[in-house]
Please model this.
Amino acid sequence: MSKISIIIKREYLTRVRRRAFIVSTFLFPIFILLFIVGSVLITVKSKEVSKIAVPNDNFFKFSLKSDSSSVIFQVDSTVNQSNFDEKGYTGFLKPARDTIFIVSRKQIDLESMDHVEHQLSKAYENSLLEERGIKKKVLDSVTKVSENAFEVKNRLVNATGAEKEANTGLAYGIGFGSGILIYITMLIFGAMVMRGVMEEKMNRIAEVMVSSVRPFQLMMGKIVGIAAVGLTQFLMWIVLIIILFSALQLFVSPETMHHIQDVQHNPAVSQNATVAANLMNAKAKLVAGAPWGIIIPCFFFYFLGGYLFYAALFASVGSVVNEDPQEAQSLMLPITMPIIFSFLILSTTISHPNSPLSFWGSMIPFSSPIVMMGRLSYGVPEGVPWWQLFLSMALLVAGFIFTTWFAGKIYRTGILLYGKRVTWKEMIKWLRRSS
Amino acid sequence: MAIVELHHLKKYFATQKAVDDISFSIEKGSIFGLLGPNGAGKTTLIRMITGIFFPDEGEIIFNGRKFHPLDDIINIGYMPEERGLYKKMKIGEQALYLAQLKGLSRTDAMAKIKEWFTKLEMQSWWNKKVEDLSKGMSQKLQFVTTVLHEPKLIILDEPFSGLDPVNTNIIKDEIYKLSKKGTTIIFSTHRMEQVEEICDHIVLVNKGKKILDGSVKQVKQDFKENLFSIGFEQEPSLDGHAAFEVIAKKDQSFVVKIKDGYKPTDVLKYFIQRNADVLAFNEILPSLNDIFIKLVEGTAVSRQFLREESIGQNADTH
Model:
């Protein structure tokens, strides 16, 4: 076994066996699941049914429908201010000129108020239509036809004349999601590389190691080992999330599922539940609507490329840090800044994939791993022409070869240097030195 | 035959000449002392011999051929002054890892680790973590990982710093045993008394230059000041004497310096003629410490050294 593979193996195994790794690998999907299920359950359970009494007077001669589970209307002429709660009503309606009051002990929530208002105007509309001789049935059928008559969609045409449908919303989501994933992992795993190097230096094992292996092997072993840890965690998450969601669909009672579906068709219900419900049923939509054949391989390419580009830089920072963690913070800044900056570029790229900012952002290796994901989600060549994609990939490869070379030089000197504060200026000097 | 020959080695850093034209050779099977105050260039010199640094100029001959770090590293065991271990790793795994990086196969490494652990009574440590070891214990482990792959050349940088006398002796014994088997050992230290009893040959460096090179015996002879101590039954009275002068008197004994052109017998004759009862008469050879201080006296580093800054920062690296 070559030395570098021995190092990779150790870096990988010590991290994967760590309790923190196991906990985060298993807890993350469970946490996501609990969050989604929790938010669904909270919306479902917190539904209070309001029973509203309707006085049988002339004003309410039209019939109010109780077509929602949250508000029930009941005609009851005996209710008054003193006895409505004894009779089991949440409140009763009391007309006063152009305002209708809901008299109640407790405050009625906004959603129920909206509902009551909606039902009142609907019922009133129906009675007015009937008075003027328009059948509600006729009106309904007309609305149904007119509402569904047109649909607006964006159709993209390429040079050969082939047309295809654009899915802007989905592209937006995928671009943003994959960009965020790369952003987070670059920071997390980059910092992990840095901490590993710092640990080696502070434990004073670095010199023992470099008497057996080249510093470059030591650095690359760590970088590759941690990349493998990152990929393992990704794959575990994907597998676990798929398992958990399949299990969830088996165990959740049909009523809840039904309710979730209800919720989806009812725009008035809170945002959370809609998001959750969308996620539950998103699978089919997702599989069909996006250029996955390009996005998935490119995601892994840019994830690895971006990681390699920055990991070497993080390693070089780790190698020059002494005992003081404050020092690490200030030295890290020039590396984290471009990562954060690329994330800012991404937020405009996902709306304007072909703007000059998006172009340059997706070419320069400092930001291309994040920004390119925003363009790729629109597909090739709609979001990004092929030549730009290949150019960006080539630049990224060249970029990480350069940063690794650059970092290797700093690392080699820094890791054996104790008790001295190193400035960026000094590090540049080390670069010029011959080996 | 020399195992290591250094020819005009130079290594300059931005701010200083860490190693400035140093040449010497180390005999196979010898115990070699590399001495010098902190910042003299010892560590830089060693890092070049271990292939961590490339010399700016000059060449290193290892085992008769030009030194080639990648191939020769298996023949070198280096225990640096700044040494440590992976804290979270188990002792056994750690030893195995370091041995494998030296190029041993897993089974070979395993067998040798078992052998050494038994020898130094460390068998029960296998599953312990490094962070649970005392300093002495981890130093023992570091020694084992340095010598495990049976290198031809072992380089120990301040090997006894922080060790108690019992463990110092255990390690010392093992060093002797290795030396008897033909292993060459380089000892880098600024603790002269250790070198005196262990080393055959020494080289003294200061400010990047070699200032002394020879066997311990020879160096002492070269630097002796013709001092003798004479013990008497009763302190004799002194009058005119041409052969010597008394440097110190203490408990019925004199320390005398024999003047040029006279011999020790002239001193003895003088006292015997005066019927003084001489109980003891021996030569006082300078300790390496004295020689060392004499040679580096006056320089800034030596003053720092005299303050006994034992575990120094590696200021000599850059």
User: Anything to note?
Assistant: The mean pLDDT of chain B is 83. The first strand of chain B starts at residue 2 and ends at 12. Chain B touches chain A through 33 residues (CB under 8 Å).
